[in-house]
Batch of 3 targets.
Target 1
Amino acid sequence: MNPIISRNQMVGKVCLVTGATSGIGKVTATTLAAQGAEVIITGRNREKTEVTLRQIKSQTGNEAIHYLLADFSDLGQVRELASNYKNRYSCLDVLVNNAGSFFNSRRETQYGVEMTFLVNHLAPFLLTNLLLETIQESETARIINVSSDAHSYGSMDFDDLGFKRGYVGMKAYARSKLANILFTNETVRRLGVSSVTVNALHPGHVATDIWSTDFSFIGPALKRVMGLFALSPEEGADNSIYLASSPDVAGVTGKYFVKREPAQSSPLSYDEEIAQRLWGISEDLTSLTQTISGADQQPTSMQPGV
C-alpha cells in the first residue's frame, strides 16, 4: 500500500522521526517532508545522517529538514537530543518513535538491562517524557510508537529484564516491543483527557538493516532472504505515515494499528498493573524524576479490543 501524498497536508507541522537514516524511518521522514512538514531526523552517524538530509531535501524540494544526532544505546545522548530539540524548537506536532535494534547475542549495558530493551524501550520512554511539555505546546499532537506483532510472544520478567538467565535474541526483541505497547497504553492513561494522542503500530514484516545487525557474515544474506518475502520499507512505513498525518485518525488514541486499522494486541499488553510497574522501573532505570502524572486529568481506561 502506498501512502496518498498531499503536497500541503502537513504544512505548518513540526515532526521528529527517530532512526530516520534508513528503512521505514527514512521513508516516513521523506513522505512527511513531501507533505510539507518541517522534519527533524535523528541518526547515530553524522556522515550518514547528513547524506540522508540532503537526499530528503533533493527528493521533496523541502528545505525545512534538519537533523539531531544521538545514539540510543546511550541515555546521556538521548537527554542531549531532547535538550537540543527544546533549545531549537518551541513545539512538536508529531513524534515518531521509530528507532530500534535487534541483537542476536546479549549485550550488557550500564543501565542494568540488555541492549535491546535499552534501545527499543528505555530510550524512547526517556525521550518522550523529556519532550512532553514541548509536545503539549501544540494545539494537537501525535506520538507514534513503532512496535511489532512480535510483541505477542513477549513477556515481562521484572526479576530478569536483562535476560541474565538465558538470552534469546527474538525473546528480547519481543519483550521490547511489548514494552512499546504497554508504554503507549500507560501514557494514554496518565495523560487522561488531552490534545495529545498516543498510538502504537505494527509496520509489517520489513526487510530493513535491523535484521543484518549482530549476525556476523550471515547478516547481509539473512536480509536478502527476508527481502524475498518481506514488505518494502515504503510499504512498511505506510502505517507510520498514516498515523502521523491522516485526518482520519485525529483524536484517536490508545490504539494498536495494523494496516491502517485498529487491531487487538496481546492480552498482556492491556495489563494495567504490569504497565504501571514497567513505568516505575523505567523511571528508575533512566533516572527520570518527572514524568506524566495525570493528576489533574480525567483518567482514561484502556480496554482490550478495537
Target 2
Amino acid sequence: MTPSLNDRAAALADAMADDADALGVAVARLSNGARVIDCGIDAHGGLDAGRRFAEICMAGLCSLSFAPLTIEGRWLPAIMVSTDHPALACLGSQYAGWRLDHDGYFAMASGPGRALVRAEDLYDDLDVDERSRSAVLCLETREPPTDAVAAYAAERAGVEPGALTLLVAPTASLAGGVQIAARVVETALHKLHELDFDVRRVRGAIGSCPLPPVAGKDVEGIGRTNDAVLYAGQAHLTVEAGDDELEALAPKVPSSASSDYGEPFGTVLERADYDFYKLDPMLFSPAEVRLTSVESGRSFAAGGVDLAVLERSFWGGA
C-alpha cells in the first residue's frame, strides 16, 4: 500500500512546529486557519531547520545528514541524502513542479501537496493516487503567503485551509540553501524522467552535495545553490536495468551533458536575461552520476566534479 505522503509530512511538520524555538522557525496561523512555518523570511532558521524542511519536502521517505566532503583537498560541509523510495520521495513529493501563481503571488511549490493538486503530468507516469485530508507544500520564496494564496492552494489540493501547512524559506537563507542542496538525488531522478526512463525502476538512491555559503541576495543564492548541484553534486542510483541500457544512459544524465554547462549558474542565467525557460532543461542534474544494475551488479559512471567553477561561484564573486 502506498503511504500517504501528506499524512507523513503533516506529522513531521507538527514535530517541527513543536521544536520551533530550538530550530529558529516561526509558526503562525492565517485568518483562514492555514499554518505557515517560516524557516528564513523573518525567522532566522538554520541548518537543522533546512534539514527538517527537506525531510518534510520528501515526506520523510529519506535519510538526511550533514557530513564533511573533501574535493581535491578542499574541505566542504555537505549534506547526504538517501532514499529507498526514489520515485515517490523525489518526484512524487520533493520536486518543485507546481507553479503557485495566484493573486499577484508566485512561488514554485514542492512537497507532497502537489500529489493532491495533480497539476503535473508526471503523476500519471508515477502511478500515484494520493489521498489525504491534509496538505503540505514547501515554498522557496521571500514573500509570506497571504490568506488568498493559502485558500487557493487548499482548494486546489481539495482540503480545508485549516488542514494546509505551508513551509517557506528564501534561497538566500541557511535553511533555503540546505533544502536546495538536498535535492541532489531529485535532480538525477528528474533528468531520468526527462530522458523517458521509467524512474520506478530506480530501487534506491544516495547522493551528496556541498552546502553553498549563504548569499546576501536571493539571485546570488540561486546561483550558488544550483552550482552546488551542477558542479559538485554526486548521486548513485541502483536500477532495475541491464548493462547495455545503463551504459548508453549514464553519459546523458550528468549536468555536463548540457550545452549550458561550464560557467557559474549566475552567469548563465544572466546571459539568458534571467529567464529560466531560455536555459537548457537538461542542465539541471548532478555533476556526477553512477548507475548500478541490480541484474548484473556492474556500475556505469559519468560526469565529474568541477571544483574550479564551484570556487568561482562560492568564493569568487561570480
Target 3
Amino acid sequence: MAEERSIWREYLEALIIAAVFLLFTNTFVIQTFYIPSGSMEDTLLIGDHLFVNRFIYGARATGAEGSLLPFRGVKRGDIVVFRSPENPALDLVKRCVAVGGDTVQVVDAQLHINGKAVKDSSYAVHKNPDAFGDPRFMVRDNYGPFTVPAGHYFCMGDNRDNSYDSRFWGPLPAHLVKGRALFIYWSYGGKTSNGQWEGLGAKLRDLGETAVGFFSKTRWERSFRLIR
C-alpha cells in the first residue's frame, strides 16, 4: 500500500510541476491566440491560431527601467497582442504604426507618420472604401494630426476600412501590451468562435464541427507561417 501511495504521489507531483511550468510559460514566454475578426486581413485571417512571443518586450513594454535582459521595445510595424483599453478582459491584435513622439495623420485613407506618407501597400488593404455618409468614416479616412504621447503606441488594423483601432479609442498604453505575434501554428477556415461564452451546448457543438471539418477546412498552406 505504501508503494502504491508513493506512485500516486509521484504522479501528482509531476502534474503539479507540469501545471506550474505551463502557467509560467503562458504568462511570461509564449501564449496562444486566435483571430476572431477580419480587422487584420489579409495578414491574419479569421480562424488563424497564433503563438505570441511574451518574452520579447519584457519590462520595457510597460515602461519599466533597469532591466538587465536584452528585451526591446515595440517598434513600428510590429504586430502586437494587447488588452483592449476599453475592455481589459478582451485581447486584441493590431499593427503598431507609431510610437511615442510620432505624429500620426490619415489623409484620404493614406497614413502619414511625421509628415511622410507610409508605404504600407504590402500589408494594408482597403476593402470597403465607401463611407455611406456615416460620420465614423470621417475619422477612419481623415484623422489627426495627433502626436502619440510617451509610453503609448498608435495601432491600426491592416484591413484599414474595417478595423476598430487607435483612430477610434486613442493611443495604446504600453502596460497593456502582452506580446508580439510570432507565427501561425494552425489556420481553420470553418466556423470560429467570436470569443463570447454562449453556453456549454454551443461550445460542444463548435468543438464537434471543428473535429469533423479539421482536415477539410484546415488551411494547411498557412501552417507555421511567420507573421510580418
